[in-house]
Amino acid sequence: MEGVVIRHRTVKVNGISMHVAEAGPEVDAKGAVLFLHGFPELWYSWRHQMDHLGARGYRCIAPDLRGYGGTTAPPDVASYTAFHIVGDLVALLDTLGLAKVFVVGHDWGALIAWYLCLFRPERVTALANTSVAFMRNIMIRNGPDFVNPIEYFNRAYGPNYYKCRFQEPGVAEKQFAPAHAKRLMRQMLCHCFSHGVFCDEEMDDHKYPTSPLPPWLTEADMDYFVTSFEKTGFTGAINYYRNFDKNCELAAPWADAKVQVPTKYIVGDGDITYNFEGIQEYIHGGGFKEDVPLLDEVVVIPGAGHFIQQERAQEVSDHIYDFIIKF
């Protein structure tokens, strides 16, 4: 870490209060970088990249997304659509007086970043997205043969697949109770979403009782995540999954739209998202470039898993920096 100070504030955007962490210069910056975290994460997942880019003159902005951390978690499931989240981000940029930003996303944050670039490309200078590629068929209702994402996941992976189990309000909450945050966060950050492991149906106390943390996570890091989810619970985070199908309906006007933003894509070869059926053929076979015409580079990091911005922090920070200095 290079010792850049992290500043915190809460701003009113789009009818909610949003906690925002910032680093780097507030004025006269080389540019502003908006970081979007995934599940089950916080702004804190970007601490290494904020440090790296902040020290190089970029204004770094990392909110807790709606439903997470210090940001409002509306009780209604319907308040977590891509329109709501993108609306939060556009309002945040307006509040901060930023006409355009670089965007960096991971996991759900990557999905939201794709939607942001589709809906409001004029607000994005360039995109460095990690983990989740642009996947039109699970993001946008398109064509007569379209299958809703949850139906697709159910057919492909069965009803016990975590995205399917998350659908019924109250069911997932029994497993993902705030009191279980310490165990759950340890299991998810250390053992899920990488190298063939999804999110186990049981996730009981006995599966990983004393496993050590990987070298890229400290006990202090884990405590930061755990303390937050003990306060908030996981319902807000899980509600994103409950809007998969709704997002497709809302995005139908963009059924044939392309992502017209300069883009770099970074993924670990062990990431679950890089091992979905057909995804590697799409990423490397021309389909991805067709959907994202300004795709500059695809970076696949050998041996890396899902939480790549923490697991391979320096490498990912370098890749992001090397990309955004072009603009």
From TrEMBL:
Q: Which UniProt keywords apply?
A: Hydrolase
Q: Name one Pfam family in it.
A: Abhydrolase_1
The keyword Hydrolase is annotated on this UniProt entry: yes
EC number(s) in its UniProt entry? 3.3.2.10
What is the enzyme's main class? hydrolase
Q: What InterPro entries does the record tag this protein with?
A: AB_hydrolase_1, AB_hydrolase_fold, Epox_hydrolase-like
Per the record, the pathway is: Secondary metabolite biosynthesis; terpenoid biosynthesis
Recorded catalytic reaction(s): these are: (24S)-24,25-epoxycucurbitadienol + H2O = (24R)-24,25-dihydroxycucurbitadienol; an epoxide + H2O = an ethanediol
Task: Please give the Gene Ontology molecular function terms for this protein.
Answer: epoxide hydrolase activity; hydrolase activity
Which residues constitute the signal peptide according to the record?
A: none
* Ranges of residues in domain AB hydrolase-1: 32-132
The family line of this record is: Belongs to the AB hydrolase superfamily. Epoxide hydrolase family.
Q: What does this protein do?
A: Epoxide hydrolase involved in the biosynthesis of cucurbitacin and mogroside tetracyclic triterpene natural products (e.g. siamenoside I and mogrosides IV, V and VI). Cucurbitacins have cytotoxic properties and exhibit deterrent taste as a defense barrier against herbivores. Mogrosides are nonsugar highly oxygenated compounds used as high-intensity zero-calorie sweeteners; they also possess pharmacological properties such as regulating immunity, lowering blood sugar and lipid levels, protecting the liver, and acting as antioxidants and antitumor agents.
Please report the name of this protein according to its UniProt entry: soluble epoxide hydrolase
| Species of provenance | Triticum aestivum
